[in-house]
Amino acid sequence: MTTRTAAPERLRPVRRTRTTNTRRRESLTALGMATPAVVLLIVFLVVPVALAFALAFTDARLISPTPARFVGLRNFTRLFEDPVFYKSLRNTAYFAAVVVPLQAGLALVLALLVNAKVRGVNFFRTVYFLPVVTSMVVVSLLWTFLYRKDGLVNHVISTLTLGHFQGPDWLGDPATAMPAIILMSVWQGVGFHMIIWLAGLQTIPAELYEAAEIDGATPWHRFCHVTWPGLRATRTFVLVTITIAAFSLFTQIRVMTQGGPLDSTTTVVYQAVRTGYDQQQTAYAAAISLIFFVLVLTVSLVQRFLTREKD
Amino acid sequence: MTSLLKRLSGHAGRVVLALVFALPLLFMLVSSFKPDDQIFGDLGSLRAFLPVGTLSLDNYTDMFERVPAARFLLNSVLISSVTVVLGIIVNSLAAFALSRMRWPGRKLVLTVIIATLIVPFETFALPLVWWVNQLPLLRVNGFHLAWTTGWMDTYQVQVLPFVANAFSIFFFHQFFQSIPKELDEAAIMDGAGWFTIYRRIVMPLSGPAVATVAILTFLPAWNSYLWPLMVVQSEELRPVMVGISYFFQLNVGWGQIMAYSSMITVPILALFVAFQRSFVNSIASTGVKG
Amino acid sequence: MVFRKRRLALASVAAAAATALVAGCASGTGGSSSGASGDTLTLWTHNAGNSAELDVVKKIIKDFNESQDTYTVELQSFPQADYNNSVVAAASARKLPCLLDVDGPNVANWAWGGYLAPIDVTGSEVPVEDQLASTVGTYKDQLYSFGFYDVSLAFFARKSVLDEHGIRIPTMDKPWTRSEFDTALAELKKSGEFDYPLEMGTGGSGEWWPYAYSPQLQSFGGDLIDRNGYKAASGILDGKESVEWGNWFRSLVTKGYMAKKSGADPNKDFLAGKSAIQWDGSWNAAKNAGKLGDDLAIIPPVDFGNGPKIGGSSWQWAMSSTCSNKDGAQEWLKFSRQTKYFVDYAQATSTIPATDAAAQQIADYQPGGMFEELVQFAREYATVRPVTPAYPYISTEFQKAAQDILAGADPEDALGQAAKNIDNNLKTNNNYAG
């Protein structure tokens, strides 16, 4: 950390001596390096996404004998009158608001647990990572079994409470369906972010901990003054990616509840896919996606603004 | 004394958590050896996690009869590994340029790249189908090369759209930022070029990041389902996840599904264990000493 | 500096080469563009992983390829779960195969959308007129598709269980009435032998919902849409009779007769004695008979007022409009229309053959045969789902309404919202004219 702050002072004279020629060369090289990725992103992401968004202003259907026509904002006015859309927005926000702190926090705890130099730590890392490598479709199927009224989750609850408490039909009850999906999603995804935190933890030089040790810092102090500041870049990454993934909640819903019961688990992306594919309303689905994009972009920009630190 | 207690409680926490994470998958693995009736019979008790009752490999043999599983595995291994290798090169190069070099517009490019993370794949899959079908394709016809149009029903349509990945670029970018910039300056003083810095200094220090990105790219490639269904018509080119819906026909074979799921999970686990070592090794090799 | 630049250039070339390498892996199969290359035609089916039916398709293709020298048909099979997405994607890329199968209720939608071309199969061994009406797909008075079989739903029960509880075993002449059915369920529930006496597969998803339950709605006197012109659902889907159905459907759950959501395998639960009466497809008839023998009762649907009803129409064969070799495609369609193949399908898949001639060759379907009634159900009670391009939309709205009703929504509100959405959809699409 100390080297960081000292560096610019030391390097300033070096930078000043550089000619504009070297600068230009640096720019050109940078462009050359970025080009493959940028070109691929433009071809396979930007162009199709732009096409998809353009459809939002037409009457395009999935299957139709006539070509799409421009209809202005018709899809958007319809969308703002759609009660399911508001429910989807609310459910999505609810999911994200719980999952983001829960998953990020739990992942950090796990990362700290398995960053210890103890025997068998590789084993634990692997076990915590198990759900991540299992496809979400498979995981959702498994948990549908576990969440049944006569399923294992309730069996465990009943055993632990000595039969005093009988669990509900988790996915069949509007009050418990979303919490059940939240729990499963965190279980599935937390191992991944544990790895990300772990990668971050390992960039913190061991000397800093040694120095703290010599200074007689408590573990909590060590965490606050060495670990946490050292994870700055990782923090932003974890926050942004969990947020975006949480907003995109879809597969679990598709497999487990199809938005029910009584719209308690319908989400924006689920609604977009249902209207776009099952209901063949391509243009309407495009409008949903476009609104979704704008909303999540706003949230991410606000997030980045809030978490940004002075360089 | 207290430190021993602390260590023990730390271990107890790790073990309890391990159970929570492993049990549902243990259920999958154990069920793959049981007949369907027994899977459902055991569902309400701890027997669901135990290899008890009638156990056999029947589900596995049936599964191989129902789905060309070997071929699908081979395809997925090919598709995923090519995507990973190309992805690591392409994305780390871009991230290097974005995080360590100075050029006009880099902040904007980074913001736009992060913004592309937001659009869920499902929402633009269909325009993408149409679009990849407009792209030129170089086909090998005996000894001739011929340009045709349309990428449907190929391996490359399952690879190239997923090589450049905003997540990976973002991750590399964040990681590269935590490597002291003085290293670059010193190297430049010694006459090294940017590409040398990338290859000789930054990448060797980025073991954990490369491992993470490898997993990050591998997982979605391995699990891709909707896309191959839309763009691949030939059974010989299909990847593993498509196989799972082969079982959801009239007679759902739950035991077979468990067997198939176990089978497609094991290779990624092996991969993870392999890459996981590079995290550990990277601690020793880290040259970040300021 | 120059040296370093060259390195970068080398790296770019390497990346390009790697890309080209992947490009070179392009499949050699090709040929599927516009469904045929010359006289080699591609055929798609939804039967990947379902070897019973797939083997029949393979057999017909093999016989056809050997029967003449001009055409060759090649098979591609897809998993059923997302078969429609595969077809839609191919259509958007103009890469539909020449021949494809299609689920009956989707024929109007695909014909309207220009996916399918009308077919002419005159001169084939089995005339179209000989088929069960529900196995023939027409749109705007033109023939687009035909199927080899249909399936029918029925109630399955154990005679011994019904006798024990004093429940009459109904016949086609005298099916259960609504009050009789409700009394029977109450009786079974009271016995305490069953958590849920009735099993109707409520854990299913997708097309199962309109297929299984909308005929009951029709038996109440309601319907999914006004079939006169297919221009409105309001007043029909949310009409008095439909709401009556909704209340009844909901009461099955509130009274504890039926699970809100069935287990993973309802038929297994029924055979294990967890439920007394199962509403299920003819495809499980043979399995049930094998397990229960003479104790198995195959019961006609309940007459809720407007006669017993079951859904008709299953998978059918069609030709794509973009097919570049329509003569060849129709040759195959004609060739396949032989009684022996109708028999093969029915036997392999435990379905009901689409013609009498085929039914007569299967012992169980003959008069006096074990499953004769199932053939009669298909003939007498089958109602096709609305033949309109709007059907896929109607289907999703009905699914949601029915699921919401079971979850506790007010039937009038749920059906009213569905009717309103369908009307809106019809309006924005100009009633699917064109």
Automatic annotation (TrEMBL), chain A:
Cell inner membrane among keywords: no
Localization (cell): Cell membrane
GO CC annotation, single: plasma membrane
Keyword list, A-Z: Cell membrane, Membrane, Sugar transport, Transmembrane, Transmembrane helix, Transport
Annotated region described as Disordered, given as residue ranges: 1-25
CDD domains: TM_PBP2
Transmembrane segments: 28-57, 93-114, 126-146, 177-199, 237-255, 283-302
Gene3D superfamilies: MetI-like (1.10.3720.10)
ABC transmembrane type-1 domain segment(s): 89-303
Composition-biased stretches (Basic residues): 13-22
GO biological process, one term: transmembrane transport
Membrane-protein topology: Multi-pass membrane protein
The organism's place on the tree of life at top rank: Bacteria
UniProt-listed Pfam families: BPD_transp_1
Coiled-coil segments: none
Family (UniProt): Belongs to the binding-protein-dependent transport system permease family.
Protein name (Swiss-Prot/TrEMBL): Putative ABC transporter membrane-spanning permease-sugar transporter
Higher taxonomy: Bacteria, Bacillati, Actinomycetota, Actinomycetes, Kitasatosporales
TrEMBL record, chain B:
Family statement: Belongs to the binding-protein-dependent transport system permease family.
Keyword NAD: no
Classification lineage: Bacteria, Bacillati, Actinomycetota, Actinomycetes, Kitasatosporales
GO BP terms: transmembrane transport
This protein's name: Putative ABC transporter, membrane spanning protein
Coiled-coil ranges (or none): none
SUPFAM superfamilies linked to this entry: MetI-like (SSF161098)
Domain ABC transmembrane type-1 as annotated: residue spans: 73-275
Record membrane topology: Multi-pass membrane protein
Subcellular location, record wording: Cell membrane
InterPro entries: MetI-like, MetI-like_sf
Membrane spanning stretches: 12-33, 72-96, 108-132, 155-176, 197-222, 257-275
Record key words, sorted: Cell membrane, Membrane, Transmembrane, Transmembrane helix, Transport
Any one GO cellular component localisation term in the record: plasma membrane
Keyword Transmembrane helix on entry: yes
Source organism: Streptomyces ambofaciens (strain ATCC 23877 / 3486 / DSM 40053 / JCM 4204 / NBRC 12836 / NRRL B-2516)
Main location: membrane
Gene3D superfamilies: MetI-like
Domain of life, source organism: Bacteria
TrEMBL record, chain C:
Molecular function terms from GO: maltose binding
Signal peptide: 1-23
Keyword Magnesium: no
Pfam family, one: SBP_bac_8
Annotated GO biological process: maltodextrin transmembrane transport; maltose transport
GO CC terms, sorted: ATP-binding cassette (ABC) transporter complex, substrate-binding subunit-containing
Entry-linked CDD domains: PBP2_TMBP_like
Keyword Signal set for record: yes
Keywords of the record: Signal, Transport
Family: Belongs to the bacterial solute-binding protein 1 family.
Protein name: Sugar-binding protein
Source organism of the structure: Streptomyces ambofaciens (strain ATCC 23877 / 3486 / DSM 40053 / JCM 4204 / NBRC 12836 / NRRL B-2516)
Lineage: Bacteria, Bacillati, Actinomycetota, Actinomycetes, Kitasatosporales
